[in-house]
Amino acid sequence: SDDGLLGPAEIRTLAARLGVRPTKTLGQNFLHDPNTIRRIVRTAEVGPDDVVLEVGPGLGSLTLGLLGAAGSVVAVEIDPVLASALPSTVASRMPSLADRLSVVEADAMSVDLSGLRPTALVANLPYNVAVPVVLHLLETVPSLRSALVMVQAEVADRLAAPPGSRTYGVPSAKAAWYCAVSKAGSVPRAVFWPVPNVDSGLVRLVRRDPPDGSRKDTFAVIDAAFAQRRKTLRAALAGWAGGAPRAEEALRAAGVDPTARGETIDVGGFARIASARHVSHK
Ligand code: SAM
C-alpha cells in the first residue's frame, strides 16, 4: 500500500523471494491486510515513548506498522530466515525508520529480554504457544506496561473471561495476576496468508499491581482448582492441601466457601487460598 505496508501481492512476492514456506509448527500465518495492521497499531496505543516488543515479526507486516508509531521496535523471531530478512525488508520499504528496529533471532520463551526494557508487547502470536508466551513475558519482563496481542478467537475469550463465565479458566486467572484484561475486537481469518482454520481476536492487557502473596503458590492453586473443574474446591484442592480437611481449613481461612467451584473465584481469592495454606502449615 501507499504507506509502505504489505498487502497480499507483496506478502506473496516476499515469501517467494525468500523461499519461505509457512509452517504450522511455528504458527506461521502472515497478515496481508493493511487495514487490519493499522487497526492493531491504533488499538495498541503505542507512541514515540514506547519501546515495542514484537514476538514473531514473520515477514514484517505488523513490524512496518509499529515502526511508524513507536519510538523503537525490538522484534524477536525464532525462524532464522525470517529474522535475517527483516532488516532489509524494512530498509527497502521504510528507509527512514530502519534504525528504529532491532531484530533478535531467538525463542521468545527462553531469551532474556528484560535488559532491553520494552514498554509494550504487540504481537500476532503463533497460536500453539500464545498463552505461555504472554504469561512468560509478563513474568520475566517487568518493564512491559501493556500488551495488545492477536490470538485465536477462542483463546481471546478465555484470556479475557471474568470469574463466573463459561470460558473462565487457567489462562484467565493467571493473566489476571498481572493485568486487567479485555477483548479488543475480532479479526477474520481471511486477512492471513495462508488462511488459518480459525478466526482471531485482539486482547488488550494493562499491567496492574498483583495480589498480595506468592505468585507460584497462587498458580499452583489455580492449576489444581481447574484440573477438576466440576468438583467443589474442597475436593479439587485436597491433593494440593494434603487432604480435604486441610483444603477446607485453608478455604475457610481465606473466606471462600469450600463448596464453591474454581470457576467462580477471582485471582485475589486464589491468592488468599494460597496464603491461607501457608499459614495453617506453620
Ligand atoms: N507478525 C507476523 C504477521 O502478523 O504477519 C507473523 C505472525 S505469525 C502468526 C507468528 C510468527 O511467530 C512467525 O513468524 C513464527 O516464525 C514466529 N514464532 C513462532 N514461535 C516463536 C517463538 N517461540 N519465538 C519467537 N517467534 C516465534
Automatic annotation (TrEMBL):
Q: Which PANTHER family match?
A: DIMETHYLADENOSINE TRANSFERASE (PTHR11727), DIMETHYLADENOSINE TRANSFERASE-RELATED (PTHR11727:SF7)
Read off the NCBIfam families from this record: ksgA (TIGR00755)
> Subcellular localization, per the record?
Cytoplasm
Origin organism is Cryptosporangium arvum DSM 44712
Known role: Specifically dimethylates two adjacent adenosines (A1518 and A1519) in the loop of a conserved hairpin near the 3'-end of 16S rRNA in the 30S particle. May play a critical role in biogenesis of 30S subunits.
| Annotated S-adenosyl-L-methionine binding sites | 29, 31, 56, 77, 107, 124
Q: Which PROSITE patterns match?
A: RRNA_A_DIMETH (PS01131), SAM_RNA_A_N6_MT (PS51689)
Any idea what this protein is called?
A: Ribosomal RNA small subunit methyltransferase A
What InterPro entries does the entry give? Answer: KsgA/Erm, rRNA_Ade_diMease-like_C, rRNA_Ade_Mease_Trfase_CS, rRNA_Ade_methylase_Trfase_N, rRNA_adenine_dimethylase, SAM-dependent_MTases_sf
Enzyme class (EC, first level): transferase
Q: What family does this belong to?
A: Belongs to the class I-like SAM-binding methyltransferase superfamily. rRNA adenine N(6)-methyltransferase family. RsmA subfamily.
Coiled-coil residues: none
Source superkingdom:
Bacteria
Family matches, as Pfam families: RrnaAD (PF00398)
The residue ranges of the Ribosomal RNA adenine methylase transferase N-terminal domain are: 36-209
The upper taxonomy is:
Bacteria, Bacillati, Actinomycetota, Actinomycetes, Cryptosporangiales
GO CC terms of this entry: cytosol
Q: Which UniProt keywords apply?
A: Cytoplasm, Methyltransferase, RNA-binding, rRNA processing, S-adenosyl-L-methionine, Transferase
Provide the reaction this enzyme catalyses. adenosine(1518)/adenosine(1519) in 16S rRNA + 4 S-adenosyl-L-methionine = N(6)-dimethyladenosine(1518)/N(6)-dimethyladenosine(1519) in 16S rRNA + 4 S-adenosyl-L-homocysteine + 4 H(+)
One annotated GO molecular function: 16S rRNA (adenine(1518)-N(6)/adenine(1519)-N(6))-dimethyltransferase activity
In terms of SUPFAM superfamilies, this protein maps to: S-adenosyl-L-methionine-dependent methyltransferases
Q: What is its EC number?
A: 2.1.1.182
